Amino acid sequence: MLRFSTRKVLVIGLGLIGGSFARALRTRGLVDEVAGYDRNRGECELGLSLGVIDCVVDDLEAAVRKADLIVLAVPVKVMEQVLCEIKPWLNPQTLLTDVGSTKGNLVEAARRLFGTLPSGFVPGHPIAGTEKSGVGASDESLFVRRKLILTPLPETDPEATLAIARLWQGVGSEVLQMEVSRHDEVLAATSHLPHLLAFSLVDTLAHEAENTDIFRYAAGGFRDFTRIAASDPTMWHDICFANRDQLLAQIDRFSSGVERLRDAIERGDSQALLGIFTRAKSAREHFS
Ligand code: NAD
């Protein structure tokens, strides 16, 4: 038996990710109760009618005091505000986790608020999602065979980490652990930069599209590459600023790479161009 219970769960922020986790926990019978709280009550009402949650929270203080596990699934920009709101009502046995796409900003905010972090605090990030938002798009299978990164801190009780890891494994995820700074570095490269590039490419071409109707001729590769440019602009705005330093470093690395390609084309350097493409193809085949 672990010291931490996960029987009564409170999800704060009942959108795509919070709703999908709630749904997955309920349909698999992993917990006794999932309560949902969202600043947009309509999301909770919809969640209740779709069977995503057992009940809608009206009194946040009472719900926080009662919960064994609180899952913060709000945009990264409002994590600190929500932490500040619920802090007075947390008890030492409460498990607290999140699903935010950036971790350094959350941990810094938590340190500012708590000083010494609660032993039940286990930051997390599911490497799963879609370009959709809202509880209506939630999917109980979203996390199946997807990675879930936990970034426990020196103050985190290993039993708290284990309790959270078991829940994510229960909904089908492969659980990994990482340092907070490593998480933000890796995600800047593999998620935040690609989103930025997709937004940038579509935006650049969209200016031209008004004149030349360019998207009519877009084939599968363009669609695959730019699907994520349909993601929520506000969410990605927040992520860019929350992971600013790591993202700037990745943009600089990428710009140098594009510059090398440009040079090779300009100089007619087939060897350099083929070298880059061949290395990339082999790396891509290795991980797929
Ligand atoms: P979403 O917009 O679908 O849901 C966010 C919900 O939070 C909304 O229902 C909103 O009303 C609610 N909310 C906002 N401020 C609130 C507040 N102060 N109090 C209570 N509720 C509030 O977004 P999402 O895609 O589910 O993203 C949620 C979190 O998951 C974000 O931190 C995001 O970085 C992370 N994440 C998203 C993805 C993805 O692909 N969408 C993947 C992994 C992680």
Structure in words:
By secondary structure, this protein is an alpha/beta fold. The protein folds into 2 domains: 8-178, NAD(P)-binding Rossmann-like Domain (Rossmann fold); 184-287, 6-phosphogluconate dehydrogenase C-terminal fold, CATH 1.10.3660.10. Helix content is 53%, strand content 11%. It contains 11 helices and 9 strands. Strands 3-2-1-4-5-6 form a 6-stranded parallel sheet, sandwiched between helices. Strands 7-8-9 form a 3-stranded mixed sheet, covered by helices on one side. α4 packs parallel to α5 (104-114) and α7 (180-212) crosses α10 (244-267). The protein is globular, with a radius of gyration of 21 Å. Nicotinamide-adenine-dinucleotide binds at residues 12-18, 38-40, 43, 73-76, 78, 81-82, 99-101, 125-126, 129-130, 133-134, 235.
